[in-house]
Amino acid sequence: MGKHNHPYIPNSQQKIKNEMIREIGIKNIDELYADIPGKYKLKKNLNIPQSALSEFEVKRHVETLLSKNKTCNDMPIFLGAGCWPHYVPAVVKEIVQRSEFLTAYTPYQPEVSQGMLQDLFEYQSMICELTNMDVANCSMYDWASALGEAARMASRVTGRNEILIPRIIHSERALTLKTYAEPVGIKVEDLAYDKESGQISLEDLRKKVSEKTAAVYIENPSYLGFIEEQAEEIGKEAHSHGTLFIVGVDPISLGILKPPGDYGADIVIGEAQPLGNSMNFGGPLLGIFACRDDMSLVRQMPGRIIGLTTTLSNDRHGFCMALQTREQHIRREKATSNICSNEALCAVASAVYMALLGPQGLKELGETIVCKANYAMRQLSKIDGVKAPVFESSHFKEFTINFDESGLSVKEIHKRLLQRKIHGGKDISKEFPELGETALYCVTEIHSKAEIDRLAEALSEILTGG
């Protein structure tokens, strides 16, 4: 709180701070942050103005700051990598803004309304149908946290302490997994990939999977956009060692791709942001979590599960929280997760979105995305100094572009694209140095042929010095 007392926060007073410090047995507040390396700690006071501004002055100041931002409405954007540009129908936004759903905090209490419970139940049901799994919870924070929870769940179920993951995975997702895994002694090991196709090396998998392996994890489509064509074989190899098979998905792809339940997945996770949630400058996101009908799995699921029952008096449908595995609801030592909230409003949006599109709509959407992404790859591959895609595999909506032969770095190319009012893809040269000057581009249903042609023309000009 600095040196100043806040009139509305009693513990900002130094006297009360001192009492709290004595009570918990520390010498100073710095001891609470001992785990944070010193190089990341701020060594000076924040430059916060002491004089208050009026509401109007604050509004004008914030609007001035916001005016510096450029959004996907201001230019074509070909950036995905975990948060993707998709169209959100107006009816989705209208419904989630209703006061019955738009609450100040996630409704997790036992007295939550039947309307919200039903909406979350419908979300779970549609996720199960989409993934061909039997049980789904009503959401996690995001794909990364869902992966961390899935690893810990697999370890609890199998009694093992190792998880195998692809080398080709979002670096931040991998770091989140390791953050979840390290405190409980789970070892995370990478699986090599084929340099031509990007596919997971089955030879490396067979060398590494063992009776110590709690789970084998794959992503389909992969982080770099290509389809993992050996998914069923990978699942069989995992199961032959008593190992769980976890699959991460982009749910939009399941309108046209075989669901993970069809090729042996035990646990399915993913990111539901594409299902009716805007990018919102990077969040909030919505983690998918589902598993097959095995109570040894279901009882170890994190989060909460909404169930459907009937009333005793008049046999009417009623919804309730069937399983709540967080420590606020059950004995702490029995809790499977300390997830303290969930993305309920985002789950409502996804339920509305899936209900609007239905199976046929999702199929048509997937086909549209694949067609546009393939058109983009064909157009870009015609440019001298460009290889698109890097991997010889089928791709969904994301693909890699290599610029090694152009003599320019991805950073420089991206800078020049921005000057032409085009937002390029993500620079992955540091994540995957073995791929050289490579970027990850994204094409979805929102990209028109004219925008893709404009991107190709701009890249051609940049690489030829035009």
Structural summary, described in words:
The structure is a single chain. With 466 residues, the chain is an alpha/beta fold. It is built from 12 helices and 12 strands. It has helices at residues 14-24, 55-66, 90-96, 114-131, 143-158, 171-181, 202-208, 231-239, 295-298, 344-381, 410-419, 449-463, and strands at residues 135-136, 162-166, 187-191, 213-219, 244-249, 267-271, 287-291, 304-310, 317-324, 398-402, 426-427, 438-442. The strands form 3 sheets. Strands 1-7-6-5-4-2-3 form a 7-stranded mixed beta sheet, with helices on both faces. Strands 10-12-11 form a 3-stranded antiparallel beta sheet, with helices on one face. It has a two-stranded antiparallel ribbon with strand order 8-9. Helix 6 (171-181) links the parallel strand 2 and strand 3. Helix 5 (143-158) runs parallel beside helix 6 and helix 10 crosses helix 12 (449-463). It is globular, with a radius of gyration of 24 Å. The mean pLDDT is 91.
